[in-house]
Write a structure and sequence with these properties.
Shape of chain A: globular
Largest interface: B-C, 72 and 76 residues
CATH class of the largest domain in chain A: Alpha Beta
CATH class of the largest domain in chain C: Mainly Alpha
Distance between the termini of chain C: 66 Å
Number of domains of chain A: 3
Strand order of the largest sheet of chain A: 4-5-10-6-7
Order of helices and strands of chain C: EEHEEEHHHH
CATH architecture of the largest domain in chain A: 2-Layer Sandwich
Number of domains of chain C: 2
Number of strands of chain C: 5
Helix content of chain C: 25-40%
Number of helices of chain C: 5
Shape of chain C: globular
Distance between the termini of chain A: 49 Å
Number of helices of chain A: 11
Chains: A alpha+beta, B alpha+beta, C alpha+beta
Largest sheet of chain A: 5 strands, antiparallel
Radius of gyration of chain A: 19 Å
Helix content of chain A: 25-40%
Oligomer: heterotrimer
Number of strands of chain A: 14
Chain lengths: 291, 769, 182
């Protein structure tokens, strides 16, 4: 591995300064399960690695029915999916956090890091999008909020500017009759990069029969995860039944633009996106009816 | 669940120790992390070596400039092919010249690189990180040549040649030298096996099935990467600590490559973290030795996982055309195989293994097998558990399943109709010995799994058998030393990949009337035990066991003589029965082994006995798998619901470790069938050289694996043992393919059977219906 | 030469100080600096679990942790699983169930399974398989490993600390009495 300077600031201002000083030659380290592997593989050259795990704001984990979920960027996946309130209120996020790697990876990897890594196949990203998550970012020019669907710029690239650090993810408090689900397709039963993935969330009316609003997001089928805005909007006012699900899935397939690579073909991925979106919608609807 | 059935004609042994399940002797070290594997040694002053590997699949090496690397602080030396004496003394040629010359070329390339990842140079430095950085500073001038990626390109008219001096050998026997046809090309060997009259045989068939099967390059997947340390003392001997399947092979090869006497080399076996045949070849030992000589320090070299994939020997990708004809009764009247195996950069694929085994469990009068060993720009293949057999069985056992469906016959009935009996000739012309092929097939057919309801839609059951004939007999040595407290030390040179230490110790215990715990086995270095062939070919429990039993017989002889002395009778008046020395002249005179052991020093001194065995006779055996699978028709995902594996083991020494072999071979077969493959760019670069994208089965991917041990004793072993190491990987490929094919209603003939391939097959089937 | 950083941590209950470069992984530190070679390297990128350790109560692949990140943390490796009184029930069960063949993956599995059984001694087959999905084995087919973990769970539930030595099998138990009969 290349040599680098390791620093572990204990407050956000220092961290921003340490990052800004080195610009593209600095990288933030949270769980390390992507960054260290990439460093070892020579994917980028840096002078400084900034360990963000000692910064209090990045370790915040609070979840309530009134304030929603604030998920610090350095909080490992295991703390997310072990939390009973998060399990109840944000099942889609729990779905995805428990799918990244195996238990060992989940003991270190963070949802924030998964987002910043900005892989097209990033398992948490579609789940965050359908939960209306926003990324709270801090940098030399102050703070800003970025909807997660706007966070990724290309394969492995995010919209963070030099010196900026992801502080936390925020999701609004869930409304009654809301349900979400994340699914991915892999050839084995764990440990793989998704060939395709899909997340769906729905908000039903009091009768549980009709869809008030819906969000669908898909991954591994484009340079970045895709927020299938139109496909979700299609469902507004419709009955929550198979016909609607089918229609939304077909519309979702239209915004998938996958490539052929060693993990899958174009046809296979588009087909899978349709299948997974249907299944995710069905589960989201049944969770919404229970909630 | 494990069941054991006695199906042999020999008297079933009533053994005291064999067949029980003692805790293995090296167990505590292995569960506490104390056992030392290849990379677990750190001598004082150790320097660290790293290898520069070719980025090109096919290129001439014009020049290598190591000056920048050598100038880097912390770097102590570099090595290239110039430093390997055998390369300087001998041209690279095939079928002539020292065998180790080809190995040396694979350790450090000389004039050409023939696969991406081939070793070109090496650096040694004070830390592995510095060595890695220094490798990046070596400049190599390559003249890139066209890539000949696989057999299709290699066998085309006008294909680029990998070796200018390679001519095709034609042979009708696996072991024969064959005839040089003089044809230059990328085909190294054409093996042809013939019996009867193939044309006539097909004329007699009522139904003929002809199909083509493809498999990809796969890796053994041992979890421990190659690791070795070499210390070449100035003006002295070279000691190598390494994780290998054969210390004497390493000693011989290293000595030949470095042009030094074998007696100057000592090879110390570390524990080995998996081999499966792949560690029967070494790669870094001579390089580490050269670097140690140059620096005067021990040099340690450990491969990364990427290097393991790209720089060691996987198994062959293959193409097999299989044509089988049956008459109305289901009797096979003719069978023909056209088999192409990719050897990688240098000749030596396991094509002959496939050719001599795929049809051999069946009595077929008219057979024609043409096998081709073809070089191409991939890593030189290495053995992988029954080398060549899984590919051949995939084709034949899939064809038989499809044929059974076609003619409306039960797949096991079709096999039973054609099973070979003792005396029937295999395709090699060699008559079968006393092998329980039919008996094993009967057990399979009678097993509850064979007829259990599938229990749901989108499910299928697949069965397949796999046959292997092992020779063994490459030579094993053993020494037994008796300890005064009635226990014994057992010394062998057989690396323990899988529990052979305990299996051999149990045979000694059986012979001496001791408990397994009273035998202390150790695996020692090349200075400390007689020459012993490598651990492979399913031979260790058999061959080294026989050697150990022979040593035990000598112990009994010597101790009987001591008892005779004590009783003042002749040695022939002493018998050893049930672990006790008895005087036939006066049956009240008895010594237990323990009592007599305590008297050895007083009766002449210690008892130490060595023996060797090279007779061979491991023999043939059949293994089989039944799988139930469920396929998700919307995604192509395959779930394995139930798995039963069968093996004729002769007599299980330690049943748990036999089951372990059966379960492990099954797992590798599942991976080979469903998910594993080397994925290449057209230029010959492997893009999935990590355990993330080279997908080996995880614990969530399979259910429990039920084992049925069939004991049909091997007449060539005192206790009836057969080998277990390789057979279990042969049948699963076809068994999985048959199960998936039956689940989705269309045949899968290319491995791996990925979800994407299944979706395409389902779509094609639906389109044509 | 890169500067070395002084790290203080607790390993298997003992306070340990070591020096490491910032680029050295905790796996390298354990194996090469501290000589604790029980933790193995299989892939160096978090895909095989051979380097599983417990870090502040969580199992992690320590190839994906830097040595410097161990500052102030508590680490358990395979070397710390047994106690002076004897083997842990998992180690005992692995031996009795023959849950290892080459043994290279065994330390990672034992550390990972120990963590599971501490949380869920009643874990069933499905849960065990899920928990161990990040540990690769190429020799056993996982069958006997799962059985060993189930057995260890039973042993722990029965209050059998399993602290008996391997003398249950008797193997390796040294007989230190050198008896010379007259």
């Amino acid at each position: 591995m290349q040599e680098f300077e390791y620093v572990a600031p204990t407050n956000l201002e220092d961290a921003i300064r340490l990052m800004a000083e080195k610009g593209p030659r600095a990288k933030a380290l949270a769980g390390g399960t992507d960054v260290l592997v990439q460093l070892r593989g020579g994917r980028f050259q840096i002078d400084r690695l900034v360990d963000v795990k000692k910064i209090p704001e990045l370790n915040e984990l609070s979840c309530s029915e009134t304030d929603g979920l604030t998920l610090g960027a350095a909080v490992p996946c295991c703390l997310v999916y072990e939390d009973p309130t998060i399990q109840k209120l944000y099942p889609g996020v729990v779905d995805s956090a428990s799918l990244i790697g195996g238990i060992q990876i989940q003991g270190r990897a963070t949802v924030g890091g998964n987002l910043c890594n900005a892989a097209p196949s990033g398992d948490t990203i579609p789940a965050l999008i359908v939960q209306e998550a926003t990324a709270i970012v801090a940098g030399p020019n102050g703070r800003r909020s970025i909807p997660v669907e706007d966070f990724c710029a290309g394969p492995g690239r995010n919209v963070l500017q030099e010196g900026e650090i992801l502080v936390a993810l925020h999701m609004p408090p869930p409304k009654p009759h809301f349900g979400a689900n994340f699914l991915r397709f892999i050839p084995r039963n764990e440990m793989d990069i998704a060939i395709a993935n899909s997340a769906a969330s729905v908000l039903l009316d009091d009768s549980g029969q009709n869809i008030v609003s819906a969000r669908i997001a898909i991954g591994s089928v484009a340079p970045t995860p895709v927020f299938a805005r139109d496909a979700g909007n299609l469902l507004v006012g419709k009955e929550a039944n198979e016909a609607s699900i089918e229609e939304a899935a077909e519309a979702t397939k239209k915004v998938a633009t996958p490539i052929n690579d060693m993990r899958g073909t174009i046809d296979q991925r588009i087909h899978l996106v349709g299948v997974l979106t249907k299944r995710a919608l069905r589960t989201a609807i049944s969770r919404a009816r229970e909630g | 669940m494990t069941t054991t059935t006695d199906k042999g004609t020999a008297t079933p042994g009533k053994y005291k120790v064999l067949g029980t399940r003692p805790v293995r002797h090296d167990g505590i070290e292995k569960v506490t992390g104390a056992a030392r594997y290849g990379a677990d040694i750190n001598l004082p002053g150790t320097l660290h070596g790293k290898v520069l590997r070719s980025p090109h699949a096919h290129a001439r090496i014009l020049s290598i400039d190591t000056s920048k690397a050598e100038a880097m602080p912390g770097v102590r030396a570099v090595a290239t092919s110039k430093d390997l004496p055998i390369i300087q003394k001998h041209e690279l040629q095939f079928g002539a010249g020292p065998a180790a010359r080809v190995l040396a070329e694979n350790d450090l390339a000389d004039k050409k690189v023939l696969y991406k990842g081939q070793a070109v140079a090496a650096v040694v430095a004070t830390s592995p990180h510095i060595a890695e950085e220094a490798v990046g500073l070596i400049e190599v001038d390559y003249e890139v040549l066209p890539t000949v990626l696989g057999w299709r390109e290699a066998m085309k008219e006008g294909a680029t040649l990998l070796h200018e001096n390679l001519t095709e050998k034609f042979t009708v026997s696996r072991a024969g030298a064959g005839d040089d046809t003089g044809n230059k090309g990328n085909t190294a060997t054409h093996l042809q096996l013939k019996m009867g009259d193939i044309e006539q045989g097909f004329k007699e068939a009522d139904t003929i099935l002809e199909r083509e099967y493809n498999t990809q390059t796969v890796h053994q997947g041992y979890i421990e990467p190659f690791a070795c340390t070499a210390q070449w003392v100035p003006d002295g001997r070279l000691t190598i600590w390494t994780s290998t399947q054969g210390i004497f092979g390493v000693r011989g090869n290293v000595a030949a490559i470095l042009d030094i006497p074998e007696s100057m080399v000592k090879v110390v076996p570390m524990e080995i973290g998996g081999g499966f045949g792949g560690k029967g070849t070494g790669y870094m030992e001579p390089v580490a030795a050269v670097l140690s000589k140059k620096t005067g320090h021990p040099v340690k070299m450990v491969m990364s996982r990427k290097e393991v994939f790209e720089g060691t020997g996987p198994s062959s990708g293959s193409f097999i055309r299989c044509k089988i004809g049956v008459d109305k009764s289901g009797k096979i009247t003719a069978a023909q195989l056209h088999m192409i195996y990719e050897a990688g950069a240098f000749p030596g694929s396991p094509m002959a293994g496939g050719a001599t085994s795929a049809l051999s469990a069946y009595k077929i009068d008219n057979v024609l097998i043409d096998g081709y060993d073809v070089v191409c720009n991939k890593p030189k293949t290495a053995a992988y558990r029954a080398p060549g057999h899984p590919q051949g069985a995939f084709a034949v056992e899939s064809a038989l399943d499809e044929l059974a469906e076609l003619v409306g016959m039960d797949p096991m009935d079709l096999r039973l109709k054609n099973v070979a009996m003792e005396g029937d000739r295999a395709a090699t012309g060699v008559p079968h010995a006393h092998v329980g092929l039919k008996e094993v097939m009967d057990v399979i057919k009678a097993h509850p799994h064979y007829t259990a309801p599938l229990g749901g839609p989108n499910r299928g059951r697949g069965v397949a058998t796999g046959y292997r004939l092992n020779g063994g007999g490459s030579g094993s040595s053993a020494t037994i030393n008796v300890i005064a407290n009635g226990t014994v030390n057992l010394t062998t040179g057989s690396m323990d990949l899988s529990g052979t230490r305990v299996a051999i110790a149990m045979q000694v215990a059986e012979a001496l009337g001791l408990s397994a715990e009273d035998v202390t086995p150790q695996v020692v270095d090349t200075d400390s035990v007689g020459w012993t062939g490598g651990s492979g070919g399913s031979r260790i429990t058999f061959d080294t066991g026989r050697a150990a039993i022979a040593a035990a017989q000598l112990v009994i002889e010597q101790m009987s003589a001591r008892a005779a002395r004590l009783w003042e009778v002749q040695p022939e008046d002493v018998e050893f029965v049930d672990g006790t020395f008895v005087c036939t002249k006066n049956t009240e005179d008895k010594y237990s082994f323990k009592e007599l052991a305590g008297r050895l020093m007083a009766t002449g001194g210690p008892v130490t006995c060595s023996a060797m065995d090279s007779q061979g006779g491991v023999g043939g055996a059949l293994a089989a798998n039944i799988f139930d699978v469920e396929v998700d028709p919307e995604t192509g995902k395959v779930d394995i619901l139930r798995s039963t594996v069968f093996l004729d083991i002769g007599q299980a020494a330690h049943p748990s470790y036999v089951e372990g072999q059966m379960q492990g071979g099954t797992l590798q077969g599942i991976g080979w069938a469903l998910n594993e493959e080397y994925f290449y760019t057209p230029e010959g670069s492997m893009v999935n050289s990590s355990l993330l994208d080279y997908r080996m089965p995880i614990s969530l991917d399979l259910p429990m694996i039920d084992c049925v041990l069939i004991e049909y004793p091997n007449p060539r072993h005192p206790y009836g043992l057969r080998g277990a190491g390789e057979h279990p990987i042969i049948a699963p490929l076809a068994a999985v393919a048959n199960a998936v094919s039956r689940a989705i209603g269309t045949r899968m003939r290319t491995l791996p059977i990925t979800p994407g391939a299944i979706l395409e097959a389902i779509e094609e089937k639906n389109a044509t219906n | 030469m890169a500067d070395k950083i002084h790290v203080h941590s607790t390993i298997n209950g003992t306070e340990v100080d070591f020096l490491c470069e910032s680029r050295e992984s905790l796996l390298e530190v354990l194996r090469d600096t501290l000589g604790m070679t029980g933790t193995k390297e299989g892939c160096n990128d978090g895909n095989c679990g051979a380097c599983t350790i417990v870090l502040d109560g969580r199992i992690v692949d320590c190839c994906c942790v830097l040595g410097v990140e161990a500052e102030g943390k508590s680490i358990l490796t395979i070397e710390g699983v047994a106690s002076p009184e004897g083997l842990h029930p998992l180690q005992q069960a692995f031996l009795e169930e023959a849950a290892l063949q080459c043994g290279i993956c065994t330390p990672g599995f034992i550390v990972a399974a120990k963590s599971l059984l501490e949380r869920e001694p009643d874990a069933d087959e499905a849960r065990i398989r899920h928990w161990l999905a990040g540990n690769l084995c190429r020799c056993t087919g996982y069958d006997k490993i799962i059985r060993a973990v189930l057995k260890a769970g039973e042993m722990i539930n029965q209050g059998d600390g399993g602290r008996s030595s391997s003398a249950a099998g008797g193997v390796g138990a040294a007989d230190s009495r050198d008896v010379y009969n007259d």
